[in-house]
Design goal:
Elements: E1 2-7, E2 22-23, E3 26-27, H1 28-39, E4 44-48, H2 52-61, H3 80-93, E5 100-104, H4 113-124, E6 130-136, E7 145-147, E8 153-155, E9 172-174, E10 178-182, H5 183-188, E11 197-201, H6 213-229
Parallel strand pairs: 1-4, 1-5, 6-11
Antiparallel strand pairs: 2-3, 5-10, 6-9, 6-10, 7-8
Protein name: Pseudaminic acid cytidylyltransferase
InterPro entries: CMP-NeuNAc_synthase, Cytidylyl_trans, Nucleotide-diphossugar_trans, PseF
Keywords: Nucleotidyltransferase, Transferase
């Protein structure tokens, strides 16, 4: 079974009730549910939550909520891997063990059905543990700087001050949208960022973390611009 798990706990602090907040016309979690349904590659799409309102909204959007997430997996310190492993064990106990599981974040309105299918295909065609979208850094990370308490600038890698940008290795980062993984990797707690993972390149304009109100505003601007071009 191919399972989509959308983690969506109720206790967001920086953006209160973030998973239910309206984003361009629907609760932001709705965009993830819609993308998963459009992908057509999942046998089940579930939302893992500790919150009754989120659970009801998820069901109205077309996802299922076969369990409520326990409090010990719903605090600020619980990682993604533990939440996905909990979902896998639930289905194991029900006699329908999943083989490939996708963790799709609830605040990932730029995740697309096509990318979800491409990530699945990339994982199935390999012996990797995980596959997930990545995008390029817009500036060479080798020339990044830090600021001290007096706002003085220090380079992280001063040896590259005079190196031409085109001569520096290109760097990528996690798009923060979804992770396809094999059940064994999720259950074993295998690190997602390792040579056992495959990156799926996506363009920078479709990547935006949404952790602060500023992030939210920028994401809405990007999303509306993309919709206007269609």
């Amino acid at each position: 079974m191919k399972l989509c798990v959308i983690p969506a706990r109720g206790g967001s602090k920086r953006i209160p009730r973030k998973n239910l907040k309206d984003f361009c016309g629907r609760p932001i979690i709705g965009w993830s549910v819609v993308a998963a349904r459009r992908a057509g590659c999942f046998d089940q799409i579930i939302v893992s939550t500790d919150d009754e309102e989120i659970a009801a909204t998820a069901r109205n959007l077309g996802a299922s909520t076969p369990f409520m997430r326990p409090p010990e997996l719903s605090d600020d310190h619980t990682g993604t891997t533990a939440v996905i492993a909990h979902a896998i064990r639930h289905f194991d106990a029900a006699g329908t063990p999943p083989t490939l599981v996708c963790c799709l974040y609830a605040t990932a309105p730029f995740a697309s059905a096509d990318d979800l299918c491409a990530g699945l295909e990339r994982l199935q065609d390999s012996d990797a543990d995980y596959a997930f979208p990545v995008t390029r850094y817009p500036f060479p990370i080798q020339r990044a700087v830090r600021l001290d308490e007096a706002q003085h600038v220090r380079m992280f890698q001063p040896e590259h001050f005079a190196t031409r940008s085109q001569d520096l290795e290109e760097a990528w980062h996690d798009a923060g949208q979804f992770y396809w993984g094999r059940r064994e990797a999720w259950l074993a707690g295998t690190p997602i960022f390792s040579p056992r993972s495959l990156g799926l390149p996506v363009p920078r304009h479709r990547v935006q973390d949404i952790d602060t109100p500023e992030d939210w505003l920028r994401a809405e601007w990007l999303f509306k611009a993309m919709q206007a071009e269609r």
